[in-house]
Amino acid sequence: MKKLILLVMLGIGSLTNNTANAQIRLDVNIGSQPLWGPVGYNRADYYYLPDVDSYYNVQKRQFVSLNNGNWVFNNSLPARYGNYNLYNGYKVVVNGDKPYLNYNTDKVKYVKYKNWGGKQKAIKYSKDSRYYVIKGHPHGMPPGQAKKIMNNKGGRDYDYRDDRDNDKHDNKDRGNKEGKNNGNKGGKENGNKGKGKN
User: Phi/psi at 74 (nearest 5 deg)?
Assistant: First the structure.
């Protein structure tokens, strides 16, 4: 009977371990997303770009466009879209393998975003510390430092920078301005005329 209980416990333990590993493998690819990508997504396999009827493979950093009936991977958009501004166009996050095979469905489903005049905030302009690991981000930092911030305060950090990139809580000048007591108890500022401590 003890052997049976032990085997059952081992079986349950291995199932629990497999479930935990599967949960850990959930891909978070924030660091791979381009600066022009939309904010709010921990994971993005592809972006569908309705304005140019193309996709962008986030991991490979390549555009996927139709060329004479074939899907072609390239580092840039086709020449006919040379003036297209990736920061201004709408990006639809599409997760999964080869979403371009669903192009006919996506084209109809997301037609409302073609020539979309609204604002979709790009990662480059985000003050969310999760995006600081992306190369070229204005508030960028080494990936190890970003992990420390992510693990701080339950995965959230607060950005106290203003629009000029000044930290509102920067205390470099704390108590060192003229006319203030700098903590010098024996100094003239306390009225002791330099005679030492009271």
Answer: -150, 155
